[in-house]
Structures are given as C-alpha cells and as structure tokens.
C-alpha cells in the first residue's frame, strides 16, 4: 500500500512538473510583449502593427533603411554553390525523452525536404552562432517570423509532431506568412464568417504584399485548411471559389509553388529548374456577344502538382483580351508540375456592371516544354458565366 501511494504521488508530481514545463514555455522567454496571431505566428506587438503592413511574395519585407535583415544570410558552399545556413538548437530535455521525441523526428523530416528542394541548410548551432532557431516542445505549434536576431523560438508541442506541420512552422521562421492573408485572396476563396469561432475573426485578416506575380496557391503548406478556427470544428470557414469540396492547404509538405517562393526569396540556384514556361493560346468564338470584359484565371495541373491560380491579365501586347473572334497567346511561367494533366479555366468576374459578362470559349492550345512542335489542343465551345469554370483535358 505504501509503495502504491508513493507511486501515485510520483506520477502526480511528474504530471505537475510536465504541465509547469509546458506553461513556462508557452511564449518566448525573456520578453512578455509578444502576441500570437493567426494561430501560430508569435510576434512582438510593434511587429504586428508595423512590419506586417507590407510583405513580399507572401514573406515579410525588410524595414527600409535598416542594416538588419529579416532573411537568413546567404553563403557559398565548398563546391561554389549558394547556400543559406540556418543554425538551430533542440531544447528537448528529460521529460521529452521520457514521453518520446516525435517532434524531433518531424523536424528532421521537415529540414530534409528543405535540403532536397532549396538552398537552405539547417545545421546544429555552433558556439559562435549568435542568431539561431531554438526548437522546443511548447504549447501548440507556433514560430517567430523571419530572422529575429539572437535566439528565436519555434514550438512543436503536442499535436504538432508531423512533417507537414514542422515544414509550416519552419517556413514561418524563414520569413513566410499565411497564403490566405494575401490581398487578392477573395478572388480565389470564400471566407464563411458565420462559421468562425467568436473572437477569432481577426485571424482571417489580409495584409498588403508584393506577390511577385506568384499565383495564389490553394494547396500551399502555408494555407489554412477548410475548417481552421471553425466554431464547431466541422463547419467550413474557408472554401475554394471553384470547388467547395477541394481540400485547401497541405498537411504533408510543400506544394510546387511553396518551393518556388522559397527559392525566389533566397535566390537559390534551384530556381532555374523550378520554373517552366508554357504558352497558352486562347481562342474566343466568333459569335454574337462571345467576347467578355471579365477577368479570366487558369490553373494548370500536372503529375507533380498544380500551378496555383493565375490571372490572365491585359498587357501592352494584349490591351483588350478575350474579344469576339480573338486569338491571344499568354506566356505563363509555372512551377515544375510534371507531365500536363488538365487545365481549369474560370471566368472570375466582370470589370464593369454594364459590360459584357458571358464568354464563349472556343478552344485552348498549350505548348508544353516537352513537345513545342505539337501543342496540346483542348476544344471547349462552351459559354461561361461569371463564376463558372471548365476543366479541359487532352
């Protein structure tokens, strides 16, 4: 009986120690002026008000006239290639070893993907590294944004022990924000405010950003899932405009565009093989009122992923696209999506209420990188109303 009582006291004491450990690590140590925004981004209050006003390609911008960069610095490897070194430390002690190290396994699997697809190299902190990321089992999943200077923290707590979640938080630590916070997000997704938890509406804010003409990515690892911040955990809070059944975001890892964004921001040499040029020739039917003044966007899907939603905009060469009987060629630069599978084309909306809305799309020709002499011909001959889309396959 004495032994059983002693055992119960020991277990209770260890549980209390464990709960205290989680509580003490719920926020960055040494600074109470932090706020958690959008569920997993730990930032100082001034940072939330100031820096998040302007972002670049889904990432934060450096402050003007500042000598400090929020990006991790580049270097040259022994073989002469550009690399970006990110020092880190693992703060997992006795309790973590006692209960398992799934978070460490997830982190190691995550950085393996960064090493394979980008020029970022995550290395154990050396004694002379002053700027580094500390990975620790805090309360929940969150990270500070970009290179902060000194020690910065990234939490992989209970429920965060997956490769996809670790990739997401690491992407925050190198400077990236959530995809659905882009200013153009309402052209691609619908926010269902009635289903959002009370008091969490601000988690769906939009921020100014220079997207660098990178398409909106519905399958980014940085995109909210369909039920994020749901009032009952099942009702959707965010849906694709073209397919309400589409699963948004990624729980496993990078999309093709995520890799492009990282390699663009950090000027990685891998970018040379990340991007591929497609030439789309779009034919509008020569029939009465067949042309449109509405926006048109496309999504290319391949065996390795998709292009993200790309708006086909007017240019100097094509000042008034999609007129009756027109034939227009659009050069489209997309990530390496593998072999072409399908094209989704959507009439997104009209420019002015008194202009023509509907569009009679005759056909689309796609010149693929592998066979420029034999373009893929996709017949359509279908009227589209604003909001309608059609999926064309060879």
From TrEMBL:
Its cofactor is Zn(2+). The active site is at 169. The keyword Hydrolase applies. Zn(2+) binds at residues 168, 172, 178. GO terms for molecular function: metalloendopeptidase activity; zinc ion binding. The keyword tRNA-binding does not apply. Keywords: Hydrolase, Metal-binding, Metalloprotease, Protease, Signal, Zinc. Residues 1-26 form the signal peptide. This is Metalloendopeptidase. Binds 1 zinc ion per subunit. InterPro entries: Astacin-like_dom, MetalloPept_cat_dom_sf, Peptidase_M12A, Peptidase_Metallo, PLAT/LH2_dom, PLAT/LH2_dom_sf.
